[in-house]
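Homework-ish question, so no full write-ups if that breaks the rules, but can someone show me the predicted structure for this set?
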Amino acid sequence: MCASVKHSSRGPALIPRMKTKHRIYYVALFSVVLLGLLATGVFQFWPHSIEASGDWAVEKRSAAVPVVRLPSDSPVPERGDLSCRMHTCFDVYRCGFNPKNKIKVYIYSLKKYVDELGMPVSGSISREYNELLSAIADSDYYTEDISRACLFVPSIDLLSQHALHIRETAQALAQLSRWDRGTNHLLFNMLPGGPPDYNTALDVPRDRALLAGGGFSTWTYRQGYDVSIPVYSPLSAEVALPEKGPGPRRYFLLSSQMAIHPEYREELEALQAKHGEAVLVLDKCTNLSEGVLSVRKRCHKHQVFDYPQVLQEATFCVVLRGARLGQAALSDVLRAGCVPVVIADSYILPFSEVLDWKRASVVVPEEKIADMYGVLQSIPRRQMEEMQRQVRWFWDAYFQSIKAIALATLQIINDRIYPYAAISYEQWNDPPAVKWSSVSNPLFLPLIPPQSQGFTAIVLTYDRVESLFRVITEVSKVPSLSKLLVVWNNQNKNPPEDSLWPKIRVPLKVVRTAENKLSNRFFPYDEIETEAVLAIDDDIIMLTSDELQFGYEVWREFPDRLVGYPGRLHLWDHEMNKWKYESEWTNEVSMVLTGAAFYHKYFNYLYTYKMPGDIKNWVDAHMNCEDIAMNFLVANVTGKAVIKVTPRKKFKCPECTAIDGLSLDQTHMVERSECINKFASVFGTMPLKVVEHRADPVLYKDDFPEKLKSFPNIGSL
Amino acid sequence: MQFWRRKSLWLALSASWLLLILLGASPLLRLAVSPRPQPATPQGWPHWLDAALLQSFSQPEEPPEDVPQPSQALHGARCSWGTCFDTSRCRDDGLKVFAHPAAGTASETHRRILASLEGSRYHARSLTEACLFLLLSQGTSAGQCGPAPHHWDGGRNHLVINLHPDSCPRASQLGQAMVAEASPRVDTFRPGFDVALPLLPEAHPFRGGAPGQLRQHSPHPSAALLALGEEGGRWHTASTHSATCPWDGRCEQDLGPKQTHPGEKLPNATFCLIPGRRAEASRFLQALQAGCIPVLLSPHWELPFSEVIDWTKAAIVADERLPLQVLAALQEMAPARVLALRQQTQFLWDAYFSSVEKVIHTTLEIIQDRILGTSAHPSLLWNSPPGALLALSTFSRSPQDFPFYHLQQSSHPEGRFSALIWVGTPSQPPLKLIQAVAGSQHCAQIMVLWSRERPLPFRWPETAVPLTIMDGPRKVSDRFFPYSAISTDAILSLDAHSSLSTSEVDFAFVVWQSFPERMVGFLTWNHFWDESQDGWGYTAEMANEFSMVLTAAAFYHRYYHTLFTHSLPEALRTLADEGPACADVLMNFLVAAVTKLPPIKVPYGKLHQEAAPLAPGVPGSRPHPQPPDQDCINQMAAEFGHMPLVSSRLRLDPVLFKDPVSVQRKKYRSLEKP
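A: Not a homework solution, just the prediction itself:
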């Protein structure tokens, strides 16, 4: 009113000759407008308070989604085929060839299903199912294009069978637009069955649909088709628990479940009576004051414990089956870093297709509850701590959220469809710390290649033709040489004519390179047909045929290592606080020079395509340290040291003494040291291994007739 | 005037309405249409603002579930490990097996299986001791099961072995017995209860068996990509580009030229395509032996020992309906994966499949693992060399305790050793030797195995490390007994005659730390094929190669004591008792069979060689080296079923060994004294 007065007082100036009748008219009009504005302002705040009362928003949503009326005679799917396997019931054609090796998952849009009378047949979507569908929709697996999808997920919440109308839900499934007997449909269910017999798989008829179920037993689980998933525990997500490292805890064994069969409870309590303090058997509390959540408390006699916090106080926690095999308690126990003792005969543990539960749990048959304590006691402490770490990893990776559960499920199915791109046992099961530190040698099979295979010599050359020819002539005398490959690294000059090359008994091939790069010497040329490669510089003419042949023999016994002649060492310089390159007379070696070295051809592939960081380009740019890079690479991937053969210390050619000056030597050493520091930082570790031995022929320098020795011509420095 | 008034009126009205619409309508509209989700083309699953308010699928207030009915009725088909096997019959010392004697005339294979069981660690002397009863099903014709033996007990704790598929009716008739069957059908196989066996060819060797055919780690560049099964159990290889639809002979005309001689017994290719029919299961083993990566097209049978073997590391199970996709994937497979798969085929073949005996022992080991529960073999031990049959779970459950897994576990063998001095033949206490060994910085303890036949000397030298004397009646094989007093990973095995310097001990131990799975020794023997005798022989002559090191002075891992005592058949250990030379050969056989690698020789001062002979048969000690018992090596080769020894042509010396530099620079300088 006040505002309108203001307006009217200003009014005369604006409309001076207005009559009273008109004035009232105007005042009324402005008031209406103002009221409208006020109302809008209030409305701006209204919707939030409406949404705050939850149900209303859900109602609104369900009012907004399309309604599907299911006639009572609409088709019901078949019960479910127990013999289904991926190659019989799954339509792989929908997945097709996919360069990314990722399945595409489609989620049906939300609908409301009602029966003929208009009564809703499905409950509203649960929080977890909403989360699950969101997780899938946010993942790389999701597609909006139903025609490109390989897997279909209905938006009908089946997580708990408790609230389901079995027949009507099945009918609702059957009318999904791509149902087709359930082919390629994935249903999620965590709480299957219902009283009195509690089936271990979802009772909803589902024909060929895959079931990701939370309580499978060996006879409902279709191995390699269904996926066993955990029963998610909302409680674990709500409660924050502090971190706890591995090691023994206050209670050795704890049972915290409330609904335990009396017979089993008796047995557990007998254990407690026998072992005293170490065993704690909790039950529900009977005398809690009002307002205290009974699910968050457990009692032993009159002592009250907080749940799930109490789980953190125990080393082993019993997860006993109830009416259902799958128990949410398993999630709580994993969350607390307690090693689960699973007592549920024939239960298929979550994700057991890929997870190695032996590493993170103890399975005890129901008949053996009484012996359980002894079994657990016999586990050595180291193994127990290993299990605790494993429990933690499983929780973090696959159990901690609905999203983790959903993604693990899809990954398992994905691995079945693209088996050649599947995730390995180690990737699923090894905790990150183990993954980083363990070495898996790519040449792990102990195998001594036959001598007859021989080796391929690769000579990198630029323009020292004369020296090159001498090297070729010398190397060709080695009995086990099977091919010689010259890598012509000079783009400005053509290699000599065919007729000028030395005539040797093995094939000789010249490869011309596109660019003068050091890494060309480590390229996995198709011309290399043997596994053994001898990399040799075009000025190494001092190695005798015996030395080279012996080097090859040594490589055969150590095919996964670099086998070379002069050895070098890396040292930690305490003053400078960095690595230092050492070529002096040391008692140790950690590298060999690749001026002449035998190694497996596979390392050429690794050098060219799998060298970490920018090392390869860095080496090409600096025209140095390619041998150190190779030493790093091989040591890092195999975890093994090099083998130095024969006493040789230097590749010194008679002609190049002049440039062996002191100053040059020093800058050389500084550069090489820098390389080691650079590579160590790129690798994130120092992979080189130091050893104190070298390989000599069995009878080297022994008192034995020289002419009877296999490799007499060995020994110069 | 009238006009002007009306105009301003309309103006004010429309202005205020405009204002109203602008400010007020949009929220009103939003409410009126619908809250989230937006009905128009949702991007993914809609994100609801009120998601947190949704009900959880499991209400904590839900009444506690009905109490369960413990132990359901048991049916044969519904058997699982927990319900149908009684582990309380098994004692702590592992699985003891009683094999029912064959009813009627037993086949040769059955007879040999029973014989091999008797000599093995699984053998139960009596029915009461046994926790597993073995029934070898008779006959190969379908439906013939043979009568149930005595003590059948409804099949409880029984294992029925069908080396041939379908030789016996299904599980329902077998009560609670487990079935180990060749290539069982996936739909009747009970995982965790039954055992899947490989489909063995009729003439599969009983013991030893042919080694894998793989000669090189990576495929030869010109090797064929694919091999396909032919009629009659033969293979032919197909070139990469033409093999677009290579199975079932549907596209035979497209196959292009066969690259190698058709009809090879074993395939020579990188991948071997094996159709899913059960009849083709025999090809699986052929491919495995040949080092040809099996590509199984929708197999209808369970892969052998799938309970413990991670087949994704050695084979590819693909869908037969997507041939082009499979081919493309094979062609594009990363070299690293091909390399790993190839090697794994060879390891698995050699560890579990190459002989009937290995297949039987693997089956029993799987069942033992189930009984052991938490102390069973970890997956790593099953799936990496040397395999679970050679890595005894009774030794330790931690892979770090074995000599084989340090790389995978990023662990190191312990930095100390225990010296074990064997005083077999009557002699003086080895005082000098004790002093030399005790002088090593790596020595943790010295143990003297004194034979009771002679009185104990009163005085022992003062040493910096603990010295233990163990006396008792001694067989030769007792020197390889896993004494609980041995606390270190490394053992330095010595004879009272041996003479070593501290420097030699130090260097040899440092070398051993780099090769903890091998034997590192000073004196060597070499084996050879003796044409004239048509058998194996071995010699102690100095030679350019060697294949055995003498345990009179050698470092090796203490695990080999456990393996020697608990895994070798009794017959072999008795053989070793016949003489120290035999024991040496046997130990070398054992280590070589496990590692498939030669032992390592380190330098040994010439001085000792002349002054004190290390062992019988060392040159220089006698005008004619004592001829080692050649019979022994042949008997062992027969018992092993093959010759495991591998020769080496190198010796590991200190880096500056005998180099013409100042002695002051050298760490192991006393090694070079004349």
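Now go work out the reasoning yourself. Hint: The mean pLDDT of chain B is 81.
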